[in-house]
Each structure stands twice: as structure tokens, then as C-alpha cells.
Amino acid sequence: MSKHKLIYQIYPTAIGTLRDIADKIPLIAKLDVDYIWLSPIFLSPWVDGGYDVADYRKIDPRFGNMVDFRHLVSVCDKYNIGVLLDLVLNHTSSEHEWFKASEKHDPWYKDYYVWRDKPLNWNSFFGGPAFDYDQIRGKYYLHLYDKTQPDLNFYNPRVVKEFKNIIHFWSSRGVAGFRVDSANILADSAFKPGYLPRIAGFFNYYQTTQTVDILEKLFSNEKIFTVAEPVGGDFMSKAKFRELTRKAFDASFNIGTLDAADTIFSMKDKIQKIHYKHWFKKLAKWTPEKKFSMALETHDTPRAVSRFDTDPKVLAMLEFLLPSYNPCIYQGQELGLKNPELSDNIDDYPGVQSRQMYQRLRKEGKTKAQAMRIVKKSSRDNARQPIDWADYVLQDHNPDSVLNFYRKLIKLWREDIVIAEGALRVRKTTNKGVFDFDRVYKGKYYSVHLDFSCKTPSTLKNDLGQTIITTRPS
Ligand code: GLC
């Protein structure tokens, strides 16, 4: 079986109900994807776009019901596409019945979450303290994200068992696997106090064996595909996490690698210059060796085309011409979508991260206009807008479209042995955004020239100098 598996992420509210998603599968299938990963579709109060789950076995009514879900799975089946669900392990919603029982000190549930008599001085990812006081229980609870997202206590074997059952519940309903949310920060209670400011220090946590043990326990016995989302950290921490969790996961995202380019990532509010050279070097070092799942966008990042201010075709070439077995396309990326013109009024933003970022910036002394300028550029809500399907169909029919460029690249990535399996040999990296490299396989080599500034066409050539693909056909 080929190791090459292409993942396609869907942020469901940007498409509609499960039936709407099913209707779009024939079009999406033309990208030749192996899996669709659905961001959470479970019952949720929707404080954090579904990443605050109130019941892992129920589908949120906004998307439909179990019959609709089965329909989606059967449509995907027809196209040989597996459905990956998003497994949010680190925390639940505070609306989850486990939390309600834990608050009341129910003997079975009292240790399902991380409770403390005194808070630690940690900050949460979204800003503000990571511990909040719970009036009912009379103790502090940990929340690495929003205060409505209490962290589970994975040292409690009952919690592990709950998730083993949930995983089985879905795999027995035709689910092909899971994308595992915040996979590297599960065993929180081992964190040492004093990690300030913000969240620095969390990411060394991959080194502890507990997280790895927990993850292996969760996913053993199931024939499923698993891809991890390690949050925060640099390439090295992600690479180590990947190494340690090879048994638990088939793949692991590189998402934070965008940070190496100092891109505006979801949790950041600085608009920084891109250090191309640094970024390319990191990509070249870690990508081939560790076989990351290459991804340039998610529901947590602004659109890459806007961030890099470049031709979407150059980004596509970077993603599919570097070695990667499990790249991931975020819905709309294949159309070359840019950030939309978001509102100037913070009340119009659905995402908790945007609102908390705004509040923090205001507290730090920024004017309304300054704060909104930053939020508009870096908000996750940039990526969560409805897809324009009329545009999709137009691009489907246009041989020169970004969409068809992606399709060509995906075919090469899958079928051309030099691109599929060749080693990477870097020739040149510049701070202006030039990245030249070869892919080498058994005496054959292809050369790639990428130019993020678009001053020259980006090209892929074979060893006879013939152009296989270019951003600017003559
Ligand atoms: C992950 C998700 C993000 C969410 C967070 C908390 O990083 O990708 O959208 O807010 O976890 O679940």
C-alpha cells in the first residue's frame, strides 16, 4: 500500500450541514484526496468553533444527525475517501456532563479534570490565566484554552477508558481515523509551575513518557489512520514528538513550522517580516527526515496567500514538491483563496481567539483601530468563511486555474517516483524568497526553482532541462 495519503481539511460551518458536505464530495474527490478531516461536528456550545465538545457521541444539530453522517460516510466510500474526525482530547466544554459531575465532586467524576486548591501562574493559549476558580467545587481548574474548556486529567485511567470507548464508537460507525487535537499537551498535571510569560515552556513536554504512553493506549487495537496536531513549539520539538509517537500516530502535522517563517499564526498578534532563508533551511532540515504532514494553512491560520503575499501556485509547489507522505490541504487553499475583508467591529467575529486577542491588545494600550488592524490580519476567522462554489466550478473548468495546478502537482507527488520518493538536495535559499532544490532518485534528478517574490517564474524541470510544471506557462 502506498504511503502517500492526501488529507483534505473541512471546517464544516464554512460549507454547511453534513448533507451539504456530502454534495461537495464529488468535486473534492477530483483532487484525488485519501481522507477528509472534518473539524469537530459534535454537540457543542460553540465557544471555540466546536473545539469545546459537550458530547462526543452526538452530532451537533447544526450539521444534522447520525443518519446524515452515515450518508456522508457512504458517499465518501464511493470515492474511496476515508472520513477523519477531530478528536479533542485535551479538554471538554464546561457544558459536558463529566465537568458538571466533577464540579459537584461526584465520586466517579471528581478526578476527571485538573483541580487545585491554589492556582499556578500559567497563562492560557488564548491569553489570561490558565486557572480559574470554580464556585461550585470551591477549587481552581486548569484550562489551557478558554475558561469554558476545562482540561481533562489523563492520569486518571477512567478518562483514558472513556476515550478508548469513544474512539471505538466512531470507528465502528465507519470512521477511517482521527486528527488528534493538541496531542502533545495531554498530561498537564506534570507541568512545572512558573512557566511565564504566556505559554513558554509547555513544549518540552513531549519528552515525558506519560503523554506517549497515554496516546499509545488510546489508539492501539484500532485499525485507523491517526494524524497528530502538536501545538506550539519549534521544528525540533515537533520532530521529537513525531519520533516518540510513531506507534500512536501515522502522521503528524508541521503546522507550527509556519512560525519559523514568523508568519502570523493564530495565537500570535505580531505582524512580522518573513525570514525566508531561515524558514527554508528549517523546512529542508526537518521535512525529509521526519516525514511531517506538510500543511500551509488550517482553520487556525490566516490564508497563506495573504500572509506570504505571493502566487498561490508557488505555495502549492512548495507543499507538493518537498518530500511529504501526508500533506494536508485546507478547504479553499486549492482555489488560492486570500483573506477576506473582515469587519472593523470586533462583535462581528465568531471566534473566541479573535475576541480575546482584541481585548488583550486594548489592555496593552492599543487604540481600537490599531487593535482591529492586527486582529483583521491575524484572526483565524479569515480562514473560516464560506466557500464560493460557483468559483470552484469555474476553476474546475479552467485548465490554468489554481485548482487544476494543484491537481497536476498532486498527480506528480503520487505517481512520479522522483517526486514521490526522491531525496532532497538544497541548492540555494535567499531572504528574498528564492528556494532552489533538487529531488534525486536513483541517478535521476529534478530541479525546482521557487520564487516567492514572483520576479521569476517558479519551475520544476527534469534532468534534460525540460519544464514539467511552471507558474507562468509561455
Ligand atoms: C487546536 C485547534 C484549535 C482549537 C484548540 C483548542 O489547536 O486546532 O482550533 O482552538 O486546539 O481545542
Structure characterization notes:
By secondary structure, this protein is α/β, with parallel strands linked by helices. The two termini are about 40 Å apart. α6 (about 235-245) links the parallel β10 and β11. The strands form 4 sheets. Strands 11-10-9-5-2-1-12 form a 7-stranded parallel beta sheet. A 5-stranded antiparallel beta sheet has the order 13-14-15-16-17. The longest helix has 15 residues, at about 155-170. Mean pLDDT is about 90; it is low at about 190-205 and about 260-270. It has one domain (about 5-90, about 155-420): Glycosidases (TIM Barrel, Alpha-Beta Barrel). The protein is built from 15 helices and 17 strands. The protein is globular. α1 runs parallel beside α2.
